[in-house]
Amino acid sequence: MTESIPSTPALRPAATVILIKDHQKKIEVYLLKRNTKSGFMGGLYVFPGGVVDQEDHDPKLLADHVDIDVREVQQQLGQGSDDEDAAAFGIAAIRETLEEAGVFFAKNRETINTDFNEMNQYRLQQDQTPGWFNEKVIEKNFILKISSLAPWSHWITPMLMKKRFDTRFYIALMPEGQECEVDNKETTHGIWLPPMEALELNLAGKIPLSPPTVVTLTQLLKYGDVNSLKDYIKTAVFGAPIAPRLVLSKNGPVILEPWDPMCGTDEDVDTDHFSDKVLPPGKDFSRIWCDKGLWKPVSI
Asked: What is the DSSP pairing of strand 164-173 with strand 11-23?
């Protein structure tokens, strides 16, 4: 009998927001610990984000409740099959950041001082129905601030993973007057950290990071302060999708980034001496190894 080959999971569209703030003239990033019961990256620290729902394509929201014309959204947010598709990614990013971190990129059409307390409390309720976000935005006449988001990177989950996502990573400054608060459902802990400290704590096993988070935090190290980062994101684009390759081994899985010389091959990776090849935070890398649950950059 011929052995069946497992099918590759379909890619699901998703959006993530890299929340940053200026703390004593240094960049800090907000990280959330995913619930250990989660079926994807459970127990790891990530940026707020999640799947793009059908409700994120709501024409009513796109037409009347975003702060830039939907025909211009491609210029602001970048990739999408069309303007409305790109806008849906932006709406999902804003919705998920509210749901998971309690931060709402919005304003009220009718008042200057917007109170988000009701939205923040409602997102914590256990009995939410699909579309609750849209209903509340329309009811309270909120305008979603898509203009607050800037493109950062575009990730494609490696094949062989049980769940796969086509994810747009956006970067945004923490809105003034708001504070982060986990939902204690999908996320159980949140923390602001400078990128270098987060990378150090990952290697120490105290703040275990997901692989894309390790890559992103390493990229952020090149910016000395928020002002230099602001200058970059004024003209930022997604660039080519980052589609790593997952390699399974007896010593733990390895992810090869597209710039790794072996990423485009089907060759095995020798992991026998990876414990001697772990790189310190800040070093460029092209492969990341899962060592007993901790993802560690390693040299070639």
From this structure: parallel
Neighbouring residues of 295: CB distance < 8 A, sequence distance ≥ 6: 44, 202, 208, 209, 210, 211, 214, 255, 288, 289
Tokens of 99: 């749901």
Residue ranges of E strands in 74-177: 106-108, 142-144, 150-156, 164-173
Contact 105, 145 (CB under 8 A): yes
pTM for the predicted model, two decimal places: 0.93
∠ Cα 91 32 187 (to 5°): 80
What does each C-alpha distance from 290 to 197, 253, 293 come to in angstroms?
A: 20, 6, 6
CA 91 to chain centre: 14
Closest CA to 211 of 254, 258, 149: 254
**CATH class for the region spanning 11-193:** alpha beta
In a structure prediction context, what are the per-residue pLDDT tens digits for the chain, which is 300 residues long? 334 445 677 899 999 999 999 998 899 999 999 998 887 888 999 999 999 999 999 999 988 999 998 778 877 887 656 778 889 999 999 999 999 999 999 998 887 767 788 898 889 886 778 899 999 999 999 999 999 999 999 999 999 888 999 999 999 999 999 999 999 988 999 999 999 999 999 999 999 999 999 999 999 999 989 999 999 988 888 889 999 999 999 999 999 999 999 999 999 999 999 999 999 998 999 999 999 999 999 999
Cα separation, 134 vs 96, whole angstroms:
12
Q: What are the sequence ranges of the domains in the chain?
A: 11-193
The length of the chain in residues reads: 300
Distance (Å) of CA 64 to CA 16, 83, 172? 23, 15, 22
User: How far is residue 281 from each of residues 8, 98, 154, 203, 296, measured CA to CA in Å?
Assistant: 33, 30, 23, 8, 9
